[in-house]
Structures are given as structure tokens and as C-alpha cells.
Amino acid sequence: MESSSTVRAYCLKVPKDLGERAISLLAKLGLLNKDLKVQSINGYLYVPLNQKPSSPHIVEFEKMLPQFDISVQDFSKRLKPSQKVFEIIGDRLPPHLLASFPRAIDFVGDIAIVEVPPELEDYKKLIGETILKVHKRVRTVLAKYSAVSGLYRLREYEVIGGSPNTNTVHKEHGCRYHLDLSKVYFSPRLSYEHFRVASQVKENETVIDMFAGVGPFSILIAKMHRNVTVYAVDINPDAVEYLKRNILANGVQGKVTPVLGDAKEIIHERLGGTADRVIMNLPEKAMEYLETACEAMKSEDGVIHYYEFAEEPNSLKIVKNRLIERLNQRGRRIEELISARLVREVAPFKWQIVADIRIH
Prior knowledge:
28% of the residues lie in helices and 32% in strands. With 360 residues, the protein is α/β, with parallel strands linked by helices. It has three domains: 2-78, Alpha-Beta Plaits (2-Layer Sandwich); 85-165, GMP Synthetase, Chain A, domain 3 (2-Layer Sandwich); 186-359, Rossmann fold, CATH 3.40.50. The chain has a seven-stranded mixed β-sheet with strand order 13-12-11-14-15-17-16, with helices on both faces. A four-stranded antiparallel β-sheet has the order 2-3-1-4, with helices on one face. The protein has a four-stranded mixed β-sheet with strand order 5-6-7-8, with helices on one face. Helix 5 packs across helix 6 (216-224) and helix 8 runs parallel beside helix 9 (290-296). It is globular, with a radius of gyration of 22 Å. The chain starts with a strand and ends with a strand.
């Protein structure tokens, strides 16, 4: 329900097909005005901003958006839901348990995912019902039942609300991903990483996505660039089947080649010396595959997007030193540390880290 009152604000004008990308970027930069409603006019989206963009902001826009304009527009106010999930459920939970209520919800397509702490085990169905009540587009509510583990990096879930079907279609940066959360790994929290890496790819590059899953890196790269070759490798047969489906759904046939198998074997047998860029999004075991990533590179300098989990206070420095030492052992060196950043906190005092390195 919208208020009739309007507010005049700065906005970012982009073509509709860039809308999701633009909104993600604005949220990352802290510029998105969530109190106002996005407008759609004649094939363009007008996304409200909470301030006038600065020169550094414009630089980011130019790097990430092929077409945009800054203007001033009247926007309708967006009324927030009268009660959040935890507010609705507050009257039905013992007061001493309110502090334990999960505030973070991940959305994959029309599925909501929460982590229910042990002390709320008896109330998990109530949590599921309340999420369905507040988030009308959600069809299924899942509770995390285990950590990500195993060769295929799967997590066990328990249905605590709605349909038991774990199949869905997730939309991200203008791409559609068919997936089944019970059979494949997928994290909506990596949305910005998918876009950030894809934005760095240059025309005519060959990219090897060593742990491609259902294709969020590979397919977005192919959608954003006219002339690229992407080899999307994964060891999980279900992930590769969904990857094939997603290649067709996003119209990137001929750009993305799905490959089933272990990346070490595939690169050694078929793809050695072919890549300008390698994506290593397997934080649990990436160090074990670093030599394989080097083997995949052409003789010229190449870029590796390396992901790892780290728990130390100086995580970025430690990961960088570890990479330098390991590459030196393999007769390689880091020519340039393009960037290193904390991607997300995955547990208390444990972070997923990415280092973009140019190796020689």
C-alpha cells in the first residue's frame, strides 16, 4: 500500500535490464533510498538516492554501468510492513527467547532460509508461519539443519513453513537461475561478488570457473560481455544439469561450456594453458587447487580470483602471505595484488575472503 504523498529526490536512471545491477550497486555504496519507491517509465528505471552522488560514486557508476544518468524526480513514499517478523512473533514467544530470534533471512527465489538456534527449536513452525505471513512472495521456508559439507558442498534443510518443494528460480543481475537447494550449492549473499568479478572481465578473454555450480559467475560474465569464452566446471552432476538449463534460459549458448568433473583432472587433461582468468570460489579447499589454477593459465600474465575462509584478526595479510609462499613454491609470483577484501562473515570471527591476483 502506497502513500499519496511524494518526495523529490536525486535518482539514478538506467535501462530496465540494468535495474537489478544498479540497485545492488547502490545498496553496496550506501546510496539506495529504501523509503521511496522505484519508478518504471518508458523502459527505464528511476532508482531513488538518499544523497547527491559524489565524484567517487560517479566513477563507480561508470565502471559498473554501461548506461546511466543522474536526475531529480518525484517519488512515492514506500510504506514499510507495519510489523517485522520478530515483532509479530514477539507476543507468542517467551520474553527471554526474543534475543535469540533470527533477524537475518536469505531469499533464494521464492524460498526463505533462516538459521533457527537450538533454544527456539520448539518454535520453528511458528517462525515459518510468520515469515510466510509477512513475506507474501515466499512459498517455502527452510531452516538450516547442517553446515555446508561434502564433495558437493550441500547443506541439509528442514521445511518449517509452506511447500516442501525446494526447486525455485532465482533472479540476480538480470539472470535467471533454476536450482534445487537440496541438490546444489547456492548463496544469495555472493550476489555482489558475482557482479564484481564479471565486471572485471575484458572482451576476448577465456575464463575458467573451476567450481561453477549452477552458473552465477559464468552466466553473468557471458551476459555482460559480447566476446568471451567461459568453461564452467563442476563435480556435482545435478549442478551441471541445472547449469545447462540456465545457459539456455539466459541465452548464452556458445559462450559458456558446461563441464562435468573435478577441476584438477579437467584442467590437466583438457584446459591447461587456455585461461586469461580463473575463478576459484571454493573457500574450503582453494589452496589445494592453486597449482591447478596456475596450470590453467596462458603463458602470459593472468588473473586469479581466489576465495578462502580465515579466522585470524589480520586475515587479509595472512592470506596474502600464504598465497605468495605457495606460488613461490610453484615457481610463480604475484605480479600484482589487484584487490583483497572481506566478502562476508560466515561465523563468529570467521570470514570469507577474496584476493584478486595477477600472477607471472
